[in-house]
Write a structure and sequence with these properties.
Helix content of chain B: 40-55%
Protein name (chain A): tRNA threonylcarbamoyladenosine biosynthesis protein TsaB
Number of strands of chain B: 10
Largest sheet of chain B: 5 strands, mixed
CATH architecture of the largest domain in chain A: 2-Layer Sandwich
Strand content of chain A: 25-35%
GO biological process, one term (chain A): tRNA threonylcarbamoyladenosine modification
Strand order of the largest sheet of chain A: 3-2-1-4-5
CATH class of the largest domain in chain A: Alpha Beta
CATH architecture of the largest domain in chain B: 2-Layer Sandwich
Oligomer: heterodimer
Distance between the termini of chain B: 34 Å
Strand content of chain B: 15-25%
Radius of gyration of chain A: 18 Å
Number of helices of chain A: 7
Helix content of chain A: 25-40%
Number of helices of chain B: 11
Structural class of chain A: alpha/beta
Number of domains of chain A: 2
Largest sheet of chain A: 5 strands, mixed
Strand order of the largest sheet of chain B: 3-2-1-4-5
CATH superfamily of the largest domain in chain A: ATPase, nucleotide binding domain
CATH topology of the largest domain in chain A: Nucleotidyltransferase, domain 5
InterPro entries (chain A): ATPase_NBD, Gcp-like_dom, T6A_TsaB
EC number (chain B): 2.3.1.234
Number of strands of chain A: 10
Order of helices and strands of chain B: EEEHHEHEHEEEHHHHEHEHH
Distance between the termini of chain A: 59 Å
Pfam families (chain A): TsaD
Bound molecules: zinc ion
Largest interface: A-B, 34 and 32 residues
CATH superfamily of the largest domain in chain B: ATPase, nucleotide binding domain
Shape of chain B: globular
Chain lengths: ~240, ~350
Amino acid sequence: MKILSIDTSNYVLGIGLLDGNQVMGEYISNLKKNHSVRVMPAIQTLMNECNVKPAELSKIVVAKGPGSYTGVRIGVTIAKTLAWTLNIPLTGVSSLEVLAASSGRHFNGFVSPLFDARRGQIYTGLYQFEEGRISSIMEDQLIMTTDWAPKLNELSQNILIAGNDLPLHQDILKEILGDKAVFAEITEHNPRPAELALLGRNKPDEDPHHFVPNYIRLAEAEAKWLESQSNQKNK
Amino acid sequence: MKAEKDQLILGIETSCDETAVAIVKNGREIVANVVSSQIESHKRFGGVVPEIASRHHVEQVTIVLEEALRQAKMDIDNIDAIAVTEGPGLVGALLIGVNAAKALAFAHDIPLVGVHHIAGHIYANRLVTEMAFPLLSLVVSGGHTELVYMKEHGHFEVIGETRDDAAGEAYDKVARTLSLPYPGGPHIDRLAHEGTPDIDLPRAWLEPGSYDFSFSGLKSAVINTVHNAEQRGDKIAPEVLAASFQASVVDVLVTKTVQAAKEYKVNQVLLAGGVAANKGLRAALTAAFSGLKDVELVIPPLSLCTDNAAMIAAVGSILYEKGKRSDLTLNGNAGLDITIHNS
Ligand SMILES: [Zn+2]
């Protein structure tokens, strides 16, 4: 059972190979560089190193967002195409869930992974590990940090906050949450592709033809169009 | 004697608002040609919205791939090479085709060839008739207006291009002025046939000997004509305006194409690009070249004028034969130059 995992949803480019109960290899970089140019060569290099042929893969797991629209689409396109053409299962995992699992597997409390979404907003959600199993406590969402922090403050346990974009939001979180906020170490901010593969291994398969990213947000033009439609109705 | 093995190229095209996959045999014969158009989705916005186009491509790409192989009754292992549009176009849209092509090429160890979109439009003609060099191609689409000279297969020389708007852009803007629905080109073409070109609109000939084009002055003249009439309380018949506008565009396109065909002593003139579907342009070119016995005019059927992947596979066939290959670092390039194919 060889699982290839692909994460291009944010600046971190992650490729993982999981064989049964062993992580064969991982490629991770955290660079503001073009995913489209680098992801297929990274997959090729890792698979060559591990001496795994495409036909030997038994499943593809992809980080399905949220994140950069273009970034998520690159990984999802590759994952869909590989799964379809190799006729193997495809599974999507929340990009936030991967980050939560990469930092908070043994944290006693809640985990709030985050990606910056500009203008004071973050993509985030709330996760918790219980006996090695991760569950979603609050769904992935796009929210102002100033609105998210008070929600976290109502919780009874400490909250681990992780993500490479943390420095952009840390002051606000610290101010509102005080000691309740536990900030992950810099080595815990990269979503790990092997975690992605492991999470995906236990999730149901999806149809590659109908698999789409989870953008969370509508395209701007679509949102404006819907707004103008409902304004007309209300007139 | 044993026949040589057929060459089969799978083409992928996602540069704008069509998700397209095709399979072409020996560079000339369409075995499968699938186009999934998003035009209905973009109509409500009055034009193609790049983010929405990209989202549609991700939804469609494997479905269209499977449909093409199903139509061809083939397996991916029958394919000799994968050709994909690497540019120009909307970068987010291009990335879907490029990455699907790379994944497919990697999964089955099939050679990969990046193709220029306009080279594709020109090679749509090879699916109709064999090319005869040297040749000249008039490429007219929403984003392009150019005259391309080819001395041989896979070699492209741009001898004239638009300095401002593409012809198709001018059509869309004039259509908007006339409050016609998107896409406006076909509506103008239809209206133009109902009216007479009685309004004298400018023709931008530029410097003598230049094969470049300019349509922004014409576009402004149309808008001014409409505004001036409104201020006088007149209303210009839209069919007269459409006919006059189309007459100006077609006049410049045809005259420059005929001049270039003579100067470069070409054997063939190929019409290419979405605006090649325009009936007025087709008729005028046919009339102009009927007097030039030594030059063959080729006009592809409408289905091959608009974006499709058979045309990309047709270029891919030649490039593959010439030994051109792309590696897994292939990227979408919004501003790709057609001369990349020249060796
Ligand atoms: Zn085109």
